């Protein structure tokens, strides 16, 4: 007489649901990621920027501030303050990064100047 039931063999867990989840995550992250869009910022070297003529036009770029020829200025007023110092939009404009100014800050100021039509920007150390 037997009181216990016969043991059924244990089923091995199926890996199919886990593989499905891994592939779904892979597809999700592939579609959600943004592939880099390379942008080129044209900055001539200081020695190759052409002939400098006219009054000084030195824009100092700090982490949170800007100055034009040593005088602090707001970023929104920079193109207007440069207008009397330049005879044409092709005149050379010198940018100098100060301590704490990151690359993104320099790119933002350069984009602001290019949007205002000032195209000949030289970055010095």
TrEMBL record:
Keyword Protein transport found: yes
Keyword Protein transport: yes
Cleavable signal peptide: none
Bilayer topology: Single-pass membrane protein; Single-pass type II membrane protein
Alphabetical UniProt keywords: Cell membrane, Membrane, Protein transport, Transmembrane, Transmembrane helix, Transport
Location(s), subcellular: Cell membrane
InterPro entries the UniProt entry points to: ExbD
Family: Belongs to the ExbD/TolR family.
Protein name: Biopolymer transport protein ExbD
